[in-house]
User: Fold this.
Amino acid sequence: MAPDHDQLPFDQWESIHRIQFLLDHWVDIFETSSASGLGGDYDSIPLLPEIAHHPSVKELDRCLGELFLRDGLLHAHEKAYRVSVEWRVTEVMRPFKLPSGKKILRAQLERQRVVPPWVRRKRVAEADAWLDNAFDGEPFIPEPLWRGLTEPVRVA
Assistant:
């Protein structure tokens, strides 16, 4: 069984996992307010943050447009599941191992996507595979995006 890609450093992820990560954070990439701390130069790029002009983001945007033209149904499922997804934070019970070795269930907050009932995971998987094949080159997660989404906020 292959290791879960979330447990590996992002530079060791397969290309399809990098594409999925970028799509899951599409709003974060293009929304100026959430990307303002990611180093955008607003004198030269007045409408979009700098990260939206990264070559991998531009190529993925091109692929999404091509998917829309080739198969609108796959595009709709992909967009509803990854690109325009709504998220909720909910409490779930997860197993936790105490220092003594005893295992207990502990409440933990988890971010979960809210998926419309008409979305089919099979179609999303087909769209992911199509995007991975259509992507020209190797997808790369821009360092400012990765740091902005995964590192804890430092308070001065």
Notes: Residues 67 and 130 are 8 Å apart (CA to CA). Confidence is low (pLDDT under 50) at residues 33-46. The first strand starts at residue 86 and ends at 97.
